[in-house]
Amino acid sequence: xxxxxxxxxxxxxxxxxxxxxxxxxxxxxxxxxxxxxxxxxxxxxxxxxxxxxxxxxxxxxxxxxxxxxxxxxxxxxxxxxxxxxxxxxxxxxxxxxxxxxxxxxxxxxxxxxxxxxxxxxxxxxxxxxxxxxxxxxxxxxxxxxxxxxxxxxxxxxxxxxxxxxxxxxxxxxxxxxxxxxxxxxxxxxxxxxxxxxxxxxxxxxxxxxxxxxxxxxxxxxxxxxxxxxxxxxxxxxxxxxxxxxxxxxxxxxxxx
Length: 256
Known about the structure:
- The protein is of the alpha+beta class.
- The protein is built from eight helices and eight strands, in the order βββββααααβββαααα.
- 38% of the residues lie in helices and 22% in strands.
- A five-stranded mixed barrel has the order 1-2-3-5-4. Strands 7-6-8 form a three-stranded antiparallel sheet.
C-alpha cells in the first residue's frame, strides 16, 4: 500500500474486474477481486464520460492495476491501467459468457477484505486459459472444483463420508450436503446424492492434485464432461443456496 502525506489514504492493487453498475449519469460502482484484499467495491467517478481515462480499463474481464483513495463510505478509483484485457474473450460470445460465469462465481464465493491469493490466481489463469484456446468445458469444470476447494469446500474423494470406508473403483455417489463421495451402500440413503462413475471420480481426483498446465492437456469424453458439470453445478447450488443465473445462461447457449 502507498500512503500520501495528506488526510486521505492512497493505495494500489492488482485486480480483476468482476462487474460494474452505473450510478447516476457518469459514475460506476466497480466490483473487483484482488490478491491481498479479496473482493473490493469502489466508485469510479465520471467513468462514462468521453474524456474519462478510466473507462476502458474498468470493463469486466479486465486484469488491471488500480490506484484508489479510501473514502468515508466507499473507496474511489483514482487511476487504473490495463495489464491484460483478454481480448479473445471479447470477440466470441461463448468464451465471453464462460469468462463472465467465472467472474460471477468468484463474486459469489469471494469475501470482501479476506485475502485469498489462490482464488485470485485461479481466476487469472482461468481467463488466460479461455483466451488461449484450452477446451472451455474442461477449464470451467476445473475452475468450479478449485474455486470450491479454495473457498473451504474441498470434497472428500477417497473415503466414504458416511461410513469412512475406502472407496472402490466402481460407481459411487457424490453428495454436496455430505461433503464428498459416498459408497454404493451409503449413497442411496442420501436423497440428493448423484451417481459418480469411475472416470468422473478419477478426473475429480486429478483436479485435486494438478495445476492449470496439467489440466490444459486433458481430453475428456462428452459423457464425463456432462457428469462433471451436473455434479459441480449441484454442489455450487447447494453451497450458494441457489442456482447461478450465469450457469443457467451457459446451459441455454450450449443447446442453442
